[in-house]
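Protein in question quoted for reference:
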Amino acid sequence: MSDLDPNDYEMAELGPAIKDVEDVVALKAILDREKEGQNRPGAISLIESRIEKYEAEEEDVDTDALNLDDMSTADVGNAVQSIDDVDELRSLLEREETGQDRGSVKGLIESRIDSVAGSEEEESEEAELEEDLPPEEKHPDLSHPTADKRHVRALQDGVYRDMWVYCETQAGELIDVSKEMLGKARELMDEYNDDYDAEERVVAVLVGDDVSKHTDDVIAYGADVVVVHEDDRLNRFQHTPYCEIFCDMARAGASHEGGEISGGRDEDWRDYDKPRYVLFPATNNGRDLSAQVQAELDSGLASDCSGLYIEDTVISNPVKTGVAGEKKTFERVLHMKRPDFSGFEYSTILCLDNPRREFHPQGGSVIPGSFEIPAPDYDREGEVVRHEADLADAWFQISVTDYERLDEGIDLTGHDVVVAVGRGIGDDPTKGMELALELADAFEDAEVGVSRGIVTGSYQFDGHVEQYTHEERQIGETGQVVAPKLYVAAGISGAVQHKVGMDESDVIVAVNTDPEARIRDFSDYFVEGDLFEVLPRLTKALKNGELDLELAGAKPAGDGAAATDGGGGA
């Protein structure tokens, strides 16, 4: 791996590229190439941090020789990562306490002790009693005693049911991702009720001006109950009133103090304290609302999800189980899959209770295009609930008096074919885009898209193709999600963020010079070759009416070709 050239990678791709390089000499060679090339401060810092990590691992730390007074916080942090003896770590902690007594340094050593000790931690009755003290008594010297991150509003032994779906509207219309979420929620809760012998429901939430007209639609797409709040002041999204309304709906007007419920309304249609699950769209407004609602409801949020399922899970983390070294089964857990920050793996986010507080509703926001829009069934029956609450005038101090609607740009969805290009066009960017356009023109219904690497890269394009390289054509997690009959990925490596945007395509054909490119794992056909040679052959074959993918150089991608379900959770 010492021949890796960091100058060939964007910053977002460099981390995954060097993650398997563990040789310090090789890493230093990569660092030299970066300094001789683009010399990016961020890249240099990234490579140097990995060098420091492995240099620290190679060193046999002599704790007696460590002079903490001469070491910075970062130096201490690096040093203690190589110490696995709890007694030595406690000795260092005592030396720091009798020396400079730096809180940040003590925190690092204590964290390492907790990590190393694991199941060896001793839990005395006195410690248990202290942990149960309210923050005001536990930390009498603090002006903000809840700064120890222990919430005091979370419920204890709360009752939770149903999956709620916030159905966003724009310009008076129910947006597609709202329909997608309703369909997925219906599927999840049908399976949930079978698995757990339950009768829990999908609850749609409509907030805005004149949104009652959508009640029949959301029921047709899968809702059992629709909770509606209408007010002519809600004709445009404003996060304070929308958040307050949603949370009042979710808690039935109750407040939660010290883990107990006070106040609230008796509602005929429900008999629980808060929803079990809640979904929001990962749109601009949905991201805003979801973060505020989940914080107000004392729970967590998995943002930008593209996969959801519910099942039991076994956890051994003592923070969640309450007992080190023991496992605990958590039931009915919503597993929320999202691409992780490396760009090459999925993470599965779980929202789990711990022994002293409960995290409900389990919530996530969903990337538009992640699920299919179900066929509406207007014969379905559902209950409509009118939500009434006083809206404070202070929530409406700002109003929009005039606005301009931006051009919606290019919609890549709905086409039979999408031809997408990535960093592989780097040798001749303009020619690469021309070849993609020519191939798209050879089909009856095709459009051209690009990867994020094209949008964020520093490629120079001639004017006649430059319009095809803008962000509006980006495919992926932060771009458009497409599912054409045929998807051609030319010069695209296959980061998970891009995979999210196209892995529901019926047939995926990848063209890449690298036989180990990640995109091969989820392609139906893989052409190992230069896109500058392969794309013209495909275009010629199409124009001659003789297109045969295998004759054009494509071969079945192998066992990984069938892996188009979003990948495995990490």
Summary: The two ends are 25 Å apart (CA to CA).
